[in-house]
Amino acid sequence: MTITEVLEDNCRKFGEDICLVEINPAMKETRRVTWREFELMEPNPTAHYRREISWNVFNEKANRFANLLLSRGIKKGDKVAILLMNCLEWLPIYFGILKTGALAVPFNFRYSADEIEYCVNLAEVDVFVFGPEFIGRMEDIAEKISKNRLLFFVGEGCPTFAEDYRSLTANCSSKSPDIKLSESDDAAIYFSSGTTGFPKAILHNHESLMHACRVEQKHHGQTKNDTFLCIPPLYHTGAKMHWFGSLLSGGKAVLLRGTKPEYILKAVSQEHCTIVWLLVPWAQDILDALDNKTLKLEDYELSQWRLMHIGAQPVPPSLIKHWHDYFPNHQYDTNYGLSESIGPGAVHLGVENVHKVGAIGKPGYGWSAKIADENGNEVKQGEVGELCLKGPGVMTCYYNDPKSTAEVLKDGWLFTGDMAMQDEDGFYYLVDRKKDVIISGGENLYPVQIEDFIRTNDAVHDVAVIGLPDKRLGEIAAAIIELKGGYICTEEEMNDYCLALPRYKRPRKIFFDEIPRNPTGKIEKPKLRERYKASNLILEENSR
User: Fold this and answer.
1) Which of 29-43, 72-86, 294-308, 427-441 is the least confident region?
2) 67 and 186 share one domain
3) Which of 113, 195, 277, 346 is disulfide-compatible with 140, CB 3.0–4.6 A?
């Protein structure tokens, strides 16, 4: 079975039910639209802008785009790129691509024009679909990438170098194309996060996508009555694969374009959301707003909210403890995965294991895991090594990159690049990225452990620990700390706080600054290393 068949099945069972809602808090309805769109009825002048579609409309839009592609010669195995902000058009376009047998290739909306061009060539894209936010970047490279490629524009004011998606699809058949698909067929190319340079192209088949559906539904028990609030960008496997649980159950999902705490709680309240996936910064922002009384729980209807889960990064235990101060009845889960393993769920904590907060959990449904040394041999329980995964969701390969593929796929195991350890109860703990481990005076320092400690300070909003060059020790640990609004903390006070850490784990440098994170919540440590490497050299020179 493929996910396109799941969509068709939902149409037969729940055709007129609402499946997707889009909410854009920063926009009002000021233009004519083709799908049902309206503002929430309230006196507030900043009222949400809201659109919704049913399963029937979803499938109809997917079919129309599929038939447009087929009419232009797109065939099984071709590649169609998507560069859109989260919107109602996103998922029908994705499914339309899959229905042709072509591969969907989602693009990060933060890509520069150069990165867009690079990824177009890397994935050998045949069709490029983009939205109004990207006209400027596309203009810079349109002449170079439009040769032998179709460019479709989704929105109003179609630029001259592209074709109008809406007018073209309006004239296409809404009947499902007769293209036979199997789980072994290639389905999608996702890009690695690119935090260490230009991204790699990750190839997945339809089996991977279906496994993601089953994993998510198995872990979080979505039913037809659940409503999932989706905030992260749909180009990323994390957001989409969590939504796959709604797809499999036929439940409703809400796409929220905004991450402010008041936007999140308002959407949960007004759309009666039951499941919300957050990133650490968004959860921390909600807690900060509740702590400083800028938000009050009694202003929202939140009793139906049953599950909050977090992924994409290590989760500080102190955050979850504080979360339960405000939401004592919430189930909680954390999910570990990476794009090479079709996103979240390869390892997960499980809602029944809240006593193990801090761990990423045990292997997820249908997954196996082990911790290996540099030679690929499994280490003893309690020792640190590289986390390795095996299961139906492992990527086929890095597209057109056999060398990089061979470095991470060995005997069916995916070597993740994440350092981890397993406790006596079989729970895995993420220690850090292999490339982020700091070797200081011969000791291995794992930044996540130091970050977890610093976050227990009431003044700290966010923190990143990086390694900086040091002539004597090779590297030293430096902590970049972002304070909560209204809090003051000096370097001396933070050093005193860190005295509770073992001596070798204490940061040698403290900097106060904002923490840069990418759209999926991961700290952009290469940026911080580049920024503070120079600062550290100046400090060393001045200390001589």
Assistant:
1) 29-43
2) yes
3) 113
